[in-house]
Design a protein that fits this description.
Layout: E1 2-8, E2 17-23, H1 33-43, E3 47-53, E4 62-67, E5 72-73, H2 77-89, E6 97-101, E7 104-112, E8 115-121, E9 126-127, H3 134-138, E10 144-147, H4 149-152, E11 154-158, H5 162-167, H6 172-178, E12 182-188, E13 198-204, E14 209-212, H7 219-230, E15 234-239, E16 245-252, E17 255-260, E18 262-269
Parallel strand pairs: 2-3, 4-6, 11-12, 13-15
Antiparallel strand pairs: 1-2, 1-18, 3-4, 4-5, 6-7, 7-8, 8-17, 9-10, 10-11, 12-13, 13-14, 15-16, 16-17
């Protein structure tokens, strides 16, 4: 079986967020979960995506699942973008592709210039009290804390400024003990003339990812948060991990459009069949 590694939310190799992408051949069902998890653990990236064609359904074209090295997740943006990139770049999809996922049907369309736009549900934000040890675990004092709902399952933490977000050096064991799947730290851009409106970082040690390079699902929460603050429906977020990557966001009612580019870096063969 052919397996690819695709860097998502970037236009150059070795940046953005790498995802494994495995298109399953001639099957109408996924292999067993244990095999899927072992492949994801072997690839050892933030997420590995598995997809197979669907036949005879009006709602979706492909079934799609995502696994971290430790567990399956309900939503993943960068591995969806990576999978769509493979389908469009190989001609398996042309005008749009619809994925049946645990988060409903997610549609991806070409956006021009090699970019792709994903249509995701907007995460509901609920202000909440920060866990007692959050500031110590994160290494910075939160200005505000929000729950992002069951699909995303993270805490969104507003920090004082961009420099604070960039300087974070969390205690990952302490973050894991807090309980939520992960923590999304964010602040407004110091200088929006640089081409981005807000910055973020994502930490998910509870699911085997200390820091995710670029987190598409986080932007389903970041988009409504910053659009309300900044008064614009369309924004650009920069995730300031070591690899960095940018996500263009556009609110459309209870949906958010996430636009980015991707590049295939490795194209190889998986010899361990299910």
């Amino acid at each position: 079986m052919r397996i690819r590694i695709v860097d998502a939310f970037t236009d150059r190799p070795f940046a953005g967020n790498p995802a494994g992408v495995l298109l399953l051949d001639d099957t109408d069902a996924f292999p067993g979960d244990r095999w899927l998890q072992r492949v994801a653990s072997e690839i050892n990236l933030s997420e590995t995506a598995f997809a197979h064609r669907l036949g005879g359904t009006a709602d979706a074209d492909w079934a799609l699942r995502w696994f971290t090295p430790a567990t399956e997740v309900a939503m993943c943006g960068h591995a969806t973008l990576a999978t769509a990139h493979v389908l469009f770049s190989t001609g398996a999809a042309t005008s749009r592709v619809r994925f049946a996922t645990r988060s409903g049907v997610l549609t991806v369309r070409p956006a021009g210039g090699g970019a792709l736009t994903m249509d995701f549900p907007t995460a509901p934000l609920t202000a909440t009290e920060p866990p007692p040890d959050l500031a110590t675990a994160l290494g910075a004092e939160p200005l505000a804390t929000y729950d992002t709902g069951p699909d995303v399952g993270d805490l969104l933490i507003e920090l004082a400024d961009e420099a604070t977000v960039r300087a974070l050096a969390p205690d990952f064991a302490a973050l894991t003990a807090l309980g939520p799947r992960g923590v999304i730290a964010t602040a407004a851009a110091d200088d929006p003339s640089q081409g981005y409106d807000f910055v973020s970082r994502g930490f998910f040690p509870a699911v085997g990812i200390d820091e995710d390079p670029v987190t598409g699902s986080a932007h389903t929460a970041l988009a409504p948060f910053w659009s309300a603050r900044l008064g614009h429906a369309e924004l650009t977020g920069l995730q300031v991990s070591a690899r960095t990557g940018s996500v263009r966001t556009a609110l459309r009612g209870d949906r958010v459009l996430l636009t980015g580019t991707a590049v295939t870096v490795i194209d190889g063969e998986l010899h361990a069949a299910p």
